Amino acid sequence: MATDARDVDENLKLDENLLAALPEGGKVVSVKPSGESDYCNTYRIEVELPDGGSEVFFEKEGSGDQGWGLVESAFTSESATYEFVPEHVPRPVSLGTYKSRPDKHFFIARFIEMVEDDTPRPESYMAAVAALHSRSMGKAPGGKFGFPVNTRFGDLEQDNAWSDSWEEYWTRQMKGYLDREDAAHNGEPHEELERLRPLFLEKVLPRYLRPMETDGRSVTPCLIHADLWPGNVKYIGDSDTACMYDACAMWGHNEVDLGVFRNPRYQLGKPYLKEYWKQVPISEPEEDVDSRNTLYMIRGQIMLSILYPHDPKLREIFVSNMRLLVERVQDEETAQSSQQGPTQSHL
Q1: Is the residue at 337 inside a domain?
Q2: Residue-by-residue DSSP string for 110-154
Q3: Which of 94, 174, 274, 278 could lock onto 21 through a cystine, CB 3.0 to 4.6 A?
Q4: What's the domain range around 130?
Q5: CATH number, position 174
Q6: Are residues 244 and 304 in the same domain?
Q7: Domain count, the chain
Q8: Taking Cα atoms as reference points, which of 119, 93, 137 lies closest to residue 230?
Q9: Model pLDDT for residues 164-223, shown as the tens digit of each residue
Q10: pLDDT tens digits, residue range 276-313?
Q11: What does the alpha-carbon distance between residue 183 and residue 169 come to, in Å, rounded to a whole number?
Q12: Torsional sign, CA 273, 277, 281, 286
């Protein structure tokens, strides 16, 4: 067990269970706030090792059932991604509960110095993403879609119950997100969203998900990060290697991770997508890739509307993209009907 060697009040010293997760014989010499989080506390912990060296750790701390969900999500997600791309993910160390405060929980990982104000170039950014997908492809437990625990996007719980079908899994998630988006707005009427919702669920999702699992095609689940906005991907020190963190992982279709690169909210765009496709083939049917990219982008936009319901622009953004896909499918159906011509009856 490590000891807390800081000259501070006993009430401010680190909890015994937290010290037990740090290097044996180490001495905690510094504890400082690290980063910003709307949902939990985060700290940088420096430990002096018995050999005279030092090691630095990152701690995420949460309270109550919600806090446990947050730190469990972080530990399980980071452990899964670290298994496949250890060069791109901070090494997870421990998940636990304070001995002195049974209602407080922690997640510890190795602290990595990152360049905070610089978004990695497409080559570095997508090397990490493509490596995660390629190395984990086909290695999902039982070949299923889902994850062992319900992970968190911010503090929004993600239903990761296992499924054999990608269409079933994604449709269930989207229905759940739309229900929670409605609840977050206290059932406030939105005529266009009410019109689009059944069309989106009953026409758009089958149109762009089902073809990947029919006519001899299938979706092979890989491990996806599921929150790859630029705040979660940074250069490691002065290297060209990108570090990914704060995952809300799941086993799913690899293209889900590409939705964020289309989102105009972030300064990413086509150069990042093009770099990814150099390393990972587009799923079949290839002609649907643009629509699938929009479909997966909508997930993140709905989640933001749930987390920040007082910003009406967030709701309008995802509604406009739902409308785009609904109209695209309707235009396609109209074109097919025209090609078939009028139905003739034979007496």
Answers
A1: no
A2: E---EETT-PPPHHHHHHHHHHHHHHHTT-SGGG-BB-SS--EET
A3: 94
A4: 115-332
A5: 3.90.1200.10
A6: yes
A7: 2
A8: 119
A9: 999 999 999 999 999 999 999 998 889 999 999 999 999 999 999 999 999 999 999 999
A10: 999 999 999 999 999 999 999 999 999 999 999 999 99
A11: 21
A12: positive
